[in-house]
Amino acid sequence: MDAAEYKNYILAFMFYRYLSEFQEHYLVENNVLDISEGESVNKVYLKEANGEDLKEYLEDISSSLGYAIAPLDTWESLINKIDNSMVIPSDYQTIFDNFNKNTELNKEASQDFRGVFNDINLGDSRLGSSTNERAKSLNRIVKLVDDIDYKGEDGKDILGVIYEYLIGQFAASAGKKGGEFYTPHEVSKILAKVVTDDIEESDRTFSVYDPTCGSGSLLLTVGNELPGGTHPGAIKYYGQEKNTTTYNLARMNLMMHGVSFNNMALSNADTLESDWPDGLDVKGVDHPRSFDAVVANPPYSAHWDNSETKLRDPRFSDYGKLAPKTKADYAFVLHSLYHLNEEGTMAIVLPHGVLFRGAAEGVIRKNLIEHKSGNRIYAVIGLPANLFYGVSIPTTILVFKKKRTTKDILFIDASNEFEKGKNQNRLSNENINKIVETYRNRVNVDKYAHLASIDEIRENEYNLNIPRYVDTFEEEEPIDLQEVKSLLAKDNQEIAELEAKIAEQLKILGV
């Protein structure tokens, strides 16, 4: 198997171990079990939660955690079976079937856990030619995951860090496909810092939405950058992801970073075809959900169904045209902007073509700038090439705000400031901080940033190509023609001397 396939086994079993051990922690912390000194939690759970009492235990656990794992299915029970050679081929299917069944005990949380392990193909012949061989392969994976120390030297849980690291490594191995589920952390940090730049810590729950959320890493980075964002309930994460495998990855990733099912709402859907679930009601009236921040790294220049009927869709109806069938970039922009609240900030990564392409895209761009409520485009940030997995082209971050007092646009050209890597370029902390500080200060920086007035934008016919606004041209030092002439004469003299020596040697050799 290649990395894109075996990651499903490694990451899923890591998640199952996490859920099982988190459940143990719940049983101890809430005194659900009467544990004597020296007894293991799992042993007491096996003893007390059986027969008619089992259902009551599972319902209690599910009501708090959103899921429940029966005593015979816990991670420790599975490890004990493996160590004592008691695992039979059907055990793994039974464990996941039982987990899926127990997710239905809590209707509010069922969507967050239902089918989360469906990407583990227990019957894949590459695990082994027989059911026994496949079971042995799965046993080895489980033991491998069991060997991981989930605690750092300071005793803190580092599982989320390990999981995120592995996702990044799998993305790197997957090449172009890696870009479908993972945004490089340095780029995520820029987007996260931009959308939380003017946010102060408060008791109000902050909401962030990613319409193409991949593995959820971008959402989590926003949580890390939000003041007080690591406090329980400080932030609620919303996301949509079309690929079911990647959607499952996102659910696991958020939960293993300590996000409760109460604080996340992820949907497995095509964002452009299915608006956020709070869209049209039974009468066809739209009730859009809006968020404090929107971040996105959508697939670049994707194909989509731009049927004329979508011009009646409230997401697109204000802008006169639909994004071209073969370039859905502005469809993602307008969808995301539609769900941004009046006070919030949106940041989206796109190819440079969105800045200058004409036809329908030119109309949409002009209408974003000349919108009846004011210019929606707040900043354009040019990034270096080759930052993303499988995509070597340079990209740009477009920043949007609805509530503005000015109509200008800040242009930042950060395309030449990066650390060169073997396969990919990287942004250092210094590179990131310079971008964010320039964005925050919103003033001209020689050869790096320019604050363009609305009149400049109009003069350029709404073309936002960064070189039109940021002059990065470096003048070459003047050439001293006399010195060049002197050097050429010297070279000619040396050549003549060498040719004379060669002729003399050839004469000696009789040639």
Automatic annotation (TrEMBL):
Example of a GO biological process term: methylation
Keyword ATP-binding: no
Annotated family: Belongs to the N(4)/N(6)-methyltransferase family.
InterPro entries reported for this sequence: D12N6_MeTrfase_N (IPR022749), DNA_Adenine_Mtase (IPR051537), DNA_methylase_A-5 (IPR003356), DNA_methylase_N6_adenine_CS (IPR002052), Restrct_endonuc_T1M (IPR004546), SAM-dependent_MTases_sf (IPR029063), T1MK-like_N_sf (IPR038333)
PROSITE patterns: N6_MTASE
GO molecular function: DNA binding; N-methyltransferase activity; site-specific DNA-methyltransferase (adenine-specific) activity
Keywords (A to Z) from UniProt: Coiled coil, Membrane, Methyltransferase, Restriction system, S-adenosyl-L-methionine, Transferase, Transmembrane, Transmembrane helix
Catalysed reaction equations from the record: a 2'-deoxyadenosine in DNA + S-adenosyl-L-methionine = an N(6)-methyl-2'-deoxyadenosine in DNA + S-adenosyl-L-homocysteine + H(+)
Coiled coil: 481-508
Pfam families assigned: HsdM_N (PF12161), N6_Mtase (PF02384)
EC number: 2.1.1.72
Spans through the membrane: 377-400
Protein name: site-specific DNA-methyltransferase (adenine-specific)
Domain N6 adenine-specific DNA methyltransferase N-terminal residues, every copy: 1-144
Domain DNA methylase adenine-specific: 156-477
